[in-house]
Design brief:
Molybdenum Cofactor Biosythetic Enzyme, Chain A, homodimer, alpha/beta, Alpha-Beta Plaits
């Protein structure tokens, strides 16, 4: 069964906000077996709202809109839907009581605008919004459903979970939508595709393959729509098992267990600690780790040594190294990694130094040149990667390379540790 | 003049990614006076892509698509457009040379899939993609334009800046789109609307007012489409000045003069340098600065001192301070700021230490408690802010508070410097 999502608001059309609601709603609909066939965003304009909902209803069984339900004049979704369904606005005592209570709790006077929020189209089923003052609405016509939700993300999310999904499940007979994503690292998209061409060719027709490239990573997603869920999930497992035989060394995990998340778990499980010395990645590697709850168990410190003086004074990089080889060099990367490991006492340390651009490149060391080093008690290794041409891209890719390099060394260290402990 | 944006890819429809491209494109089109009247997202499906582009062309003069230009089988935008425009794919020697060079740089073999990327529809103008292997394409029909861009955000952004915007400006006679947003704090949306009702009523008809509520904040946006830009910008200034007389105590600023960008410019102009000592913000402040080209002129170093040992050994925080007041305290924040300033030799330093959660909170210091300190040659000041309940939110808010605090001190320092120099 198909659904369409229409997000309403001038702020979306002018790019003042990024529309995150549509992605959330799509994910949730997929979990109950509803396929999202199209999404649209329109302005706070009655003719446009009506036209886009009518067009979507012509193609799909469910239309979910968000936005345009606030108390002020620029919000017109409710009156537009009321007209579209040939209804009229009536007071809903339960909603009014709820709005009054919310206003009182916040010490705000209940005024005419709030009174307007308690008015709902007579023909709809009200979806009670426990977290806000704008109620959701459920309309039906010719067996099809139009659902209007507020645009405030957390209010919308609660209404989806508490009201919309349960009602859709009981209203329609739904099949399943299945997605699984495998993460590969180290093979460019075109090389990966060439390597797995025969496997791709032999996929059952109901499985749709997608390549999702990002810095140093290509995710492979298999999707099936409106199928018998468990059977298809098992088939996808079988297909991914076949891929394991073809490209074992490039598979680093499955959706949502990213390289970094795996490393996070590995470090915690093995009681290993890390430190980071960054130049061109500028604090980005540290920020990636510290964004994860529990990082304080293993992340001791990061030093963003942008200035040469900081590389020398804090990390102990030798002046002669900087002079002889330059800040962007294997030797500097090595001394940075060893330096941050020494001052932090971490088991493992990684360092980056490169040219993020847009200026600073030379013929010998163009923008995008990045040196990496990883140090532990057994020694230090270094590598160079050309990480792109755009400042943001270079920082992101270099961050991904550094985390992958750290991850491999952490795995080796964890294995060695286990070996030692087993042999004790 | 109107444009529509169509983002293409199953990953958008299933909610696997949040579509940030559409917001970026909309913003950029607005800057050159093009109004985005509608946005849509469709799957990697030829019939759907063709239908949605044809519908958009029926309503608007420009259609911009992103996505579906990769080398693998799931990407079909290029072949679909070729058929739609009744053209055929031909080799573009310049694109082929570029793709070969990019592959060689990354040490990747040039294969049939890459060869396919160098094939372009004969009827289009190729938009050279210096940062990726998929070229952009510009099609014309009956005076209308269809532009196809890659979905990789940074490639799309460079193509918009370097190719699309200049060509659109020379191709169409464009008027202006003007948006200005005032930020208010402390008045609920319904109360604010009641307070400024007379002002709203008296707005000139070509100015459209929008209310954008978020926790504790309501942003008021005035927009005008296809107008004479400078005249309208002056009129908006006049209208906002009137609001200043009505609700002076609730106006906290304007959007898009980002505090951080202003600080970046101010530091460069005044030759001031900074350093950062982070605990709970975990490298995020450093990453914000180093993301901006030219930050190396003033950003000397950042230390993410997560472990107490790092606070002591690198930043010189006293063990007795940590013991007596704890890591999350005014005293620790002060010593961190002073420490990083001392070891870096920066003019200004900022420090953060707090509880990002989800664990680690106490009754006295709940999750979200963050201490900030700023140090310069004249001394050190500190403040505490409760920065939210969610780890990501706490990190983001604390980063914003720290940058704001740094910014105020930098402004004072720059003013003092100017005063001194003037009196020399």
């Amino acid at each position: 069964m198909n659904a369409e999502i229409i997000t309403i608001g001038d702020e979306i059309l002018i790019g003042q906000i990024v529309d995150t609601n549509a992605a959330y709603i799509a994910q949730k609909l997929n979990t109950i077996g509803i396929v999202v066939s199209e999404r649209a965003s329109v302005g706070d304009d009655a003719a446009q709202i009506t036209r886009s909902i009518e067009q979507a209803l012509g193609r799909s069984s469910v239309v979910i809109t968000t936005g345009g339900l606030g108390p002020t004049k620029d919000d017109i979704t409710k009156t537009t839907l009321t007209r579209m369904f040939g209804s009229r606005l009536v007071n809903d005592p339960k909603v009014e009581e709820h709005v009054r209570r919310m206003m009182a709790q916040r010490g705000i006077e209940f005024n005419d605008l709030n009174r307007g929020q308690a008015m709902v189209p007579e023909c709809c089923t009200v979806l009670f919004n426990a977290h806000g003052t704008a109620p959701g609405m459920w309309f039906e016509r010719d067996g099809k459903v139009v659902i209007s939700l507020p645009g405030v993300p957390f209010e919308m999310r609660h209404l989806m979970e508490d009201e919309v999904l349960p009602r859709l499940k009981s209203h329609f007979a739904l099949r399943a939508v299945v997605h699984r994503t495998m993460i590969t690292a180290g093979l460019a998209e075109s090389m990966l595709a060439a390597r797995i061409a025969n496997w791709e060719e032999a996929l059952p027709p109901y499985l749709k393959l997608a390549y999702l490239p990002s810095p140093n990573i290509v995710r492979l997603r298999l999707s099936a729509y409106e199928v018998e869920g468990e059977t298809v999930a098992r088939e996808i497992d079988r297909q991914f098992q076949k891929l394991h035989d073809i490209i074992p060394e490039y598979i680093v995990g499955y959706e949502n267990d990213s390289v970094q998340h795996n490393l996070h778990e590995m470090l915690r499980e093995n009681g290993l600690t890390i430190a980071v010395a960054e130049s061109c990645t500028g604090g980005n590697i540290a920020a990636k780790f510290t964004a994860m709850a529990g990082a304080s168990a293993y992340f001791l410190c990061g030093v963003t040594a942008y200035a040469n003086s900081a590389k020398m004074d804090i990390l102990g990089v030798k002046a002669s190294t900087l002079e002889k080889y330059g800040a962007v060099s294997e030797e500097t990367a090595r001394e940075m990694a060893e330096g941050v490991r020494r001052i932090s006492g971490a088991d493992l340390a990684v360092a980056t130094t490169g040219i993020a651009g847009p200026t600073g490149g030379t013929a010998e060391k163009p923008v995008g040149t990045v040196w990496f080093a990883v140090a532990d008690a057994t020694g230090t290794t270094a590598m160079m990667r050309n990480s792109g041409t755009d400042r943001g891209q270079i920082i992101d890719r270099a961050t991904a390379y550094a985390i992958e390099m750290l991850s491999k060394r952490a795995a080796a260290l964890a294995a060695a540790k286990e070996h030692t402990e087993t042999n004790k």
